[in-house]
Amino acid sequence: MTHDEYRSESTLVGTERQQLEAFVHDNRLEILGLLDGLTEEQARRRLVPSLTTPLGIVKHAVFVEKVWFHVSLAGRSRAEVGIPDAAEDSWVLADGDTVESVRAEYRRTWAEADEIAAAFALDDLAEHNRRGPLTLRWIYAHLIEELARHAGHGDILREQILAS
Question: Which InterPro entries match (predicted)?
Fold first, then answer.
């Protein structure tokens, strides 16, 4: 199986962890796919009042992964992992953000997240979250929900961008 293959269909009878990780992986691919075939201008195009753009969604996904794995699970600070304190700031695109640079950062971040998570069992607690302790299982379930929601937003934006 390659890094870019969908995994949920191959884990129909897998363990709970295999299934959760497969759905996380598949949603990560959906987030990356938002940028497929878009120009730099299209990836940055704002069609809604918020900062939500295809490139912004992928950049926000970097933030989300770092919050849950690098900060909440591994106990590193937001400053240490290079993310803003406020979630709304994670949508802000810098001049140097490109389709390829943000894609590469997301792939690096999710590889690091997988490495961090590998050291924990599903019932192990993430002790460094503002909500208080929560399990790795909860993080996976939440990440599936959040990535799927943002992928849906991105699908609508892509459809509008490519139709114009």
Answer: DinB/YfiT-like, MST-like
Per-residue pLDDT band at 3 (split at 50, 70, 90): low
Phi-psi region of 75 (alpha: psi -120 to 50; beta: other; left: phi over 0): left
pTM comes to: 0.94
Over residues 138-164, mean pLDDT: 97
Q: What is the pLDDT of residues 82-110, one digit of tens each?
A: 999 999 999 999 999 999 999 999 999 99
Cβ neighbour number for residue 35 with a 10 Å cutoff: 22
Tokens representing residue 157 in the block: 């934006």
Cβ atoms of 90 and 60 closer than 8 Å: yes
Look up the CATH number of domain 8-163.
1.20.120.450
